[in-house]
Amino acid sequence: xxxxxxxxAVTIAVTLIGCTPSRSGSVYTHEQARRVxxxxxxxxxxxxxxxxxxxxxxxxxxxxxIGGIAGSSVGGGRGQAIMTVAGGILGGIIGAATEExxxxxxxxxxxxxxxxxxxxAVVQEADVDYGVGDRIHLLTDGYETxxxx
Length: 149
Fold this sequence. Notes:
CATH 2.40.50, elongated
């Protein structure tokens, strides 16, 4: 019975980790589709490799559940209660670190000299290869900004 609980907890945790949003310049959410965007043009004057932090919530919860279930199968009485708590804490720590590593994204900090004279920087996933001198469009919808060719 314990193994079934562990399998269910792992399945739920892995499924929810896969639900993290994309920070790509070419992926739009359902809500972003058909939203008016302001467009400015400019030239890329700098590109730097950076990382977007990963998420931590679901991994912590899933890890704590799995650790608690695993800990509860050790010993009996007071020892079992201690192991359940310890397993939950350790599982939560491991789950958070695992989720953060899985959901961390390689990204680019793209610095753009706009035709208006302003200079801005945008961070987005490194799914398109941008270089210094590239002429780009900067799209802003009031909430998010992205670089596009």
